[in-house]
Amino acid sequence: MGQRDKEDANGEAGGKPVKYDPSFRGPIKNRGCTDVICCVLFLIFILGYIVVGIVAWVYGDPRQVLYPRNSTGAYCGLGENKDKPYLLYFNIFSCIQNTNLMTAVTNDLQCPTPQSVLESLQQELCPSFLLPSSPALGRCFPWSNNTPPDLPGITSNISQAISGLLDTLNARDISVKIFEDFAQSWYWILGALAVALVLSLLFILLLRLVAGPLVLVLILGVLGVLAYGIYHCWEEYRVLRDKGASITQLYFTNLSAYSRVQETWLAALIVLAVLEGILLLMLIFLRQRIRIAIALLKEASKAVGQMLSTMFYPLVTFILLLICIAYWAMTALYLATSGQPQYVLWAPNASLPGCEEVSLNKSCDPMARQVNSSCPGLMCIFQGYSSTGLAQRTLFNLQIYGVLGLFWTLNWVLALGQCVLAGAFASFYWAFNKPRDIPTFPLGAAFIRTLHYHTGSLAFGALILTLVQMARVVLEYIDHKLRGVQNPVARCIMCCFKCCLWCLEKFIKFLNRNAYIMIAVYGKNFCISAKNAFMLLMRNILRVIVLDKVTDLLLFFGKLLVVGGVGVLSFFFFSGRIQGLGKDFENPHLNYYWLPIMTSILGAYFIASGFFSVFSMCVDTLFLCFLEDLERNDGSLDRPYYMSKGLLQILGKKNEAPPADKKRKK
Description:
This protein is mainly α. Helix content is 62%, strand content 3%.
C-alpha cells in the first residue's frame, strides 16, 4: 500500500477522494451565480439598513451630544447663542446636593439650576454668587476652593469632587500637549510604520530561503523552554520535599501559598513533561508532514512574491470595514438622539410655602413666563426627549436592526477579502508553468469574479456567523444583567453556554474560511463548498493540524519580530537615547514620549497583522489546492501534478516526462 493509499484508507470517514476532471485547469471561469436567494435577501436587508439610516437622519439630532443646553432647551454655541459656547450653572452645589455628580455627567449634565439671566435676583434667576471656573465639555465648572457665602455647610470635600470632575473631563491642556507631540513626531511615526511594513514584507519574502531553519529553531526553542521548565519545577519540588512542605498543611483560601508546597511543583513538572513528550513524539512520527508544511510555507512566500499586490489588499478591506462601522455609529447616534424636547415646571425648593399648590413636573412652554409669587424660583426647565412617535416607539427594534446590520456587513466584507485572495492564490497554484501561466491580473479578476457570482454565498456564510455572534451578545447581556443575583449553579451553566458559543463561532469561522477557498476555485454554492472543504480536510486531518500549528508558530514569531523591533527602535529614539544623528535627524522634544512609542507599536501590530493575514490565507489556499492535486492527479502525462518540485521530492513522487524528453535523455 502506497503513501496515497494510506492517506485514503485513514480518511474514509471524510468521504471519497476527488475524482479526476480533465477540464479542470484552476479557478473555473465559466461559472454561474450561487445562492441567489440569499443574495436577494442580503440586498433587501441592505436597502432596509439604508432606510433605517434615513429615518435616523430625519428624526435624530446629534447636537444633543455635541452641545450643552440651557434651561430653556436652547443649544449653547449655536444660533442666537453662537457667541455663548459655555453653559454656566448658577448654583453648582444644587447639582451636587440633588444628584450624583458623575451620574449627572452621563445624563447630559441636566442639573436643576437656573441658567438664563432674564429675571432678577429676587426671583432667583441670576447667580447669587460666582466662582472662578474652567470650561469642560462646553460647561463651566468651578475650580476655586472658596466656599460660597450662602452655603456655609459646604466643605472642601465638594471642591475636591469638582476638582476630580475637572481632572476627568477637562482634558484641554492634555489634548493640546498630545496634539503638539503628534505635530512634532508624526513623520517619525510614519517612518516607524514604514519600517514595520518593510520588515513584514521582507519576513514573508525571505521565508522561501529560511523557512526550514527558522521552523527548526523555533521548535527547538519551544523544546528548550519546556526542558528548562521541567528542570526548574524539579529543583523547586526537591527543595520543598526536603523541607516537608505539603499541601495538607495549607488552607484552601490561601491561594498564594500554593507555590510553597511540593505538590504544586510536582503537578507542574508532570504537565510540562507530558507536553515535552508529546512534542518529541510529534517530531519523530510527523517529521514528513512537518517537511510538507515547511515546503508549503516556501510556496506561499513565492506566491506572494509573484503577486505583491495581494499584500496591500487589506487596505481595501480596512476601508470597507471603516465605512461599515462609521455608518452604524452615525445611525446609532442619530437614533439615540431622536425625539422632541420636553419641558416641565421646577422649583428650587418644593417644600416652601406656596409651592405645594403648583403642579411641579407638569409640561410647560419654555418661551412663556413662569411667574408665580407664591412659589419662589418657579421656572420651566428642559427634562428630556419624548419617547412617542414612529421612530421613538420602534427605537429598540431599529437599534437591534442596526447591530445586526453591523455584524452582517462586517462579516461579509471579511468574507469578500478571503474569497478574493483565495481566487488569486489558487490561480498561482494551478498554473502548470510558473510564472508564465499565471493570469496577468489575478487579484482584479478574482475580485470581479467574486462580486459578480458569489455575493449570495458570502452573505450566506456571513449570516450564519452573524447569528452566532448575536447569540453571544445576547448571552453576555443576560449575564451582565443577572450577575448580582445568580447562584453558583446558574453561573456555571451560563459559563458553559458562553464557552459552547465561543467554540461554535471558532468552528464556523474555520469552516467558512475553507468554504470560501472552494468557492473561489470551483464556483459552487456555499453548502456544497463547505461540505467538500470539510471532507477534504478530514481526509487529511494530521496534515491540517501540523500545518496549522507550524504556521501559527511562524507567524507569531514574525509578529513578535516586527512589533518588538519597531517598539525597541521607537523607545530608544523618542526617549532620546539615540543621539548624534545630525541636525536633520534631531530627536523631537515631547511632552509624553510614550505616546508616539505606543502609536508606533500599535500601528506596527496592525500592519504586521494585515500582511500576515494575507500570507496565512495564501498558505490555507495552497494547502487545499495541494490536497486536491494529490487526489485528482497521479503524475502521468494526462494527469500531471501541479505542485512544486520540492513537494514532489518530499512525497517521493514525480511527473512523467514527455516522450521527446525521454528520447533526448537516451
